[in-house]
Amino acid sequence: MTRLTLEFAASIRFKLMLLVLACILPAALLAALLIDYDYQLTYDNFTRSAMATARANAMEVDKELAIVESALVGLSTSPDLRLRDLQAFDAQARQLGARQNIFNVVLEDASGQQLMNTFRPYGVPLPREPDSASLKFMRERDATFISSLFIGPVAQRQMVAVGIPLHSREGAWCALTASIAVERFGGILRQQHYPDHWITSIIDRGGRIVARTADMQRFVGTQALPQVRERMQQQAEGAFETRTLDGTPILAVMSRAVNSGWTVAIGIPLENLKSEMRRKLWSLVLATIGLLGAGLLIAWRIGTRIRRAMHGLIAPALALGAGEAVAPVSYGVREADEVGDALVKASAMLLRAQHQANHDVLTGIANRAMFHEVLAQQLAICQRSHGTLAVLYLDLDHFKAINDTHGHAAGDQLLIEASVRLRSQLRKADMAARLGGDEFAVMLADVGAAETAHVVDKLSGLMAQPYQIDGLALTAAASIGVALYPAAGDSLALLLEAADQAMYQAKAARRLGPRG
Ligand SMILES: Nc1nc2c(ncn2[C@@H]2O[C@H](COP(=O)(O)OP(=O)(O)OP(=O)(O)O)[C@@H](O)[C@H]2O)c(=O)[nH]1
């Protein structure tokens, strides 16, 4: 990944938080859909139940009117009527009215002339209404008439009438009508015990309100809501959402009574229906916010921990690159700890490889490459600070013979012992190296000719000592060549060349000596 894409790469915290959102939001959406589905189900069940109530109430209305009709039918069989004893019939009708909560009973002849009206004393002159709709209906259809709401011409109050046609034996025709006060229908509604917020109305065929559960005095006689009247024309039953005159949204449920054609309409404020769903939705919103908050907080904390663990690996990784020892701190994140362990192992491998590259495998002291490197550094220091140093080249004498006589392993052991002897005579600032085969080199830092000669003497004596190897005393003295800086040369190459030459000269001199 390039540096540019790294800058735009999302952090682990951001990705964890996205994960939380990706888990919680779809679940919240699903819950919202379930709540909506539940609301629809509840709404449908509620509508069905309200419709059943409206239907039952419509039947109650028809039943109430049927009671009045049957009372009239019973009254019409009176012998007093048959015998035209209207005064006795009037008395009988008054008793019926009192019993049945009927406002008044009227007997009319075919011309519309009232013959008897229990609202007026018997015998007083009564009005004639030849073109009344009720008479027309009963005459033409010869059937029971149920009026719409009207204001009684004599009583001057709102009421409804039920009328039945009568036929005398002589074929004369007349009508018997009972008027009922609207309060009787208000009583039907009161018996239903609707919930307080329901408003139920009984509406006549003309769309006028006959009775109402609330504000009856105010609304009786007024037109029902236009939407309700419109629906009444179109269908016998229905449920729909609309608004009251004051703008309150309601669910309107209505059912038309079969006989009277009147309609019972129930208005239920939608607020009451929706409040439960709204409460559930709010609970869901709050739960979602809570879960999201908790989830994001946890994701943030986990992300922070992982981030710290990852950042904790940067320094060890850089140390590894610099060839330094690596010591990562554990942050309790397993994967990061595993990477830290890998860095530690890589560091150890790198240090080992570095060591192998710079040291002689057999003796463990520096090899030729490292000797040259360190010598060059020391030389540079001396050149800057006008210091001194000495380079010693050592070559074991007759080493081949030891190999040949005692075996290669014994030769190896001798080389190891020789390196130990070399190092034992050096200071910390000095350095011993194996150049290869039986050749060694020594750098003496900050020494002059006298000190160098002293060290060379000591080394020469020490190296000449026999080595105890496999119970044998083996001798391999060293020929030592010396080159001093700055006397022998001011470059690495010149110094090495000079030391090499000196060593060969020393070896040659020894060959010429007693052992040569
Ligand atoms: N055991 C052992 N022998 C080695 C190793 N490397 C080189 N040699 C042997 O060391 C010997 C060095 O040979 P030379 O220095 O030419 O012979 P020398 O007998 O020391 O002769 P002079 O130096 O003239 O005294 C050779 O026989 C190499 O095979 C090693 O790692 N182990």
UniProtKB/TrEMBL annotation:
Protein name per its UniProtKB record: Diguanylate cyclase
Top-rank taxon, per record: Bacteria
Alphabetical UniProt keywords: Membrane, Transmembrane, Transmembrane helix
InterPro entries: DGC-Regulatory_Protein, GGDEF_dom, Nucleotide_cyclase, Rev_trsase/Diguanyl_cyclase
Keyword Transmembrane: yes
Domain GGDEF: 387-516
CDD domains named among the record's database cross-references: GGDEF (cd01949), PDC2_HK_sensor (cd18774)
Organism: Duganella levis
Matches recorded under Pfam families: GGDEF (PF00990)
NCBIfam families per record: GGDEF (TIGR00254)
Transmembrane segments: 281-300
